[in-house]
Amino acid sequence: MIDRRLGWVLRGLLALPLLIALIVLCAKHWTPVLDLAMTELRVRDVGGRHTPLIGLPGRIGTFPNQGSHPGPLSFYLLAPVYRLFGSTSFGLEVATAVINVAAAWTAIWIARRRGGRRLLVAVGAMLAVTTAWFGASVLTQPWNPYLPLVSFVVVLLAAWAVLDGDHVMLVPLVVAATLCAQTHVPYLTLAVSMCVVAFAAVGWRWWSTKVVARPEVRSVLIAVAVAVLLWLPPLIDQLRNTPGNISMLRHHFLNPPEAPTGFGTGIRTILAHFDLWHLMVRLFGRSGDYFALVADLDGGSWKRGLVVVVVWLTLAAVALRMPDRRPLRMHLVAAVATVVAVLSAERIFGKVWYYLTLWAWVIALLAVLASLWTAVQLIDRHRRQPLPLLAAGMAVMLIAVGLFSIDALRVEPPEARLSHGLAAVVGPTAAALDAGVAGARGHDGTYVVLWADAYYFGSQGYGLISELERRGFHAGATITYRVPVTNHRVVDLEQVTAEVVLVTGVNIPIWRAKPAAVQAADFEPRNAAELAEFER
What we know:
Shape: globular
Number of helices: 22
Largest sheet: 3 strands, parallel
Low-confidence stretches: none
Distance between the termini: 69 Å
Strand order of the largest sheet: 4-3-5
Strand content: under 5%
């Protein structure tokens, strides 16, 4: 009973900073652009005849015939809360926070099942550090590289629990692994490897004991059935389309357009995420600047990370001689994940963007948790009384929750500058369409959205399509953008009532000079100093 109450206390602490962030974001209007506008379009489609079958478009293949991330599970999970909050952009932020809180609570549940009070507090502290490190901006926006981060903690802990004999954990493992793998393709090999390790462990137990327990068979069958169900949409897409998205993914990664970065870059990239000194220093010294946060998440020093790895491997060797095998199994999960992470990172081609390896921080923190667990057991063997670690663990958790809460108080919506600019022109544009400007016919017309964007490669153009659709207009794009906006939002140019053109920067005077163009809205996002700098 005490452990159950403690578990709910930890869950409440983990949810608190995200609740604060949502209260702050509720007062700040957000108009999604680029990837997040594309995400909202797909979440809006869930449950209808155009329910998405694959994930968000990615740098897969060649534009405009680009592929997408593997699956749509994230859209399905976002949709209920999104609709509960009136299908607003804020509802999208709430839905993202709910997914992350649910994942954190699931991780607490796994810890309580497998480890007792000490492990419960230790996992709570790990989750608190993890979520504080990623920050409120990352964990409240439904961008596909960010959305699976906390769920990946569940993948690792569930795989460890299965290795430790808890066959029931196959089901949450499959669900969390599917969410990660479908949402962002860099998680795919990691998620699959963890599932392979877990199912192999169950198979090994059956083979070594010559006993196949009925409850274990039931768990395996349920997990397999859930996996098949969750992967049906991408399989349906593969069967319905030529080429299917699975074929495009396979072709792209088997025939990359550039040479991979190589083993050296891969191992240095992962080692940089084991730099705990960088994590601690930046966590305490972090500003509210989103771009500073991104620079922090990119990793620290690979040399300091190497020191951490050497200490971890030393303690893993110590765990081999410990009677309690739970820490050793956690070391094993972290080791397998690290090896797969290096192999994945060395296959990256092009620039190694920070968001491609964010999961490496989670692996590093799991390795640290396993190492601390081993060290504590080693010390306890030489003491009459166990170390008083509950207070230390709670102190770490409270500090991390406090830092996360401070960060939550100053959170801003994603791409706030672009969002603000788009919001300024959406209302007047909609009013012009309703007023019949330039041949428009209000909500009875069909509109194609075009853009001549000097700065952000059409980021706000995708947002404009979404915002006009939110207001009930039939707006879409040309066939060139069929993948980003989805096929059913492609507009036949012969049936277009009017063109809505978003123009920025040096393109504005060019379009103002066009005889047929009517300016519906105007917004200058730069202040006087920025304009003067631009002129210079």
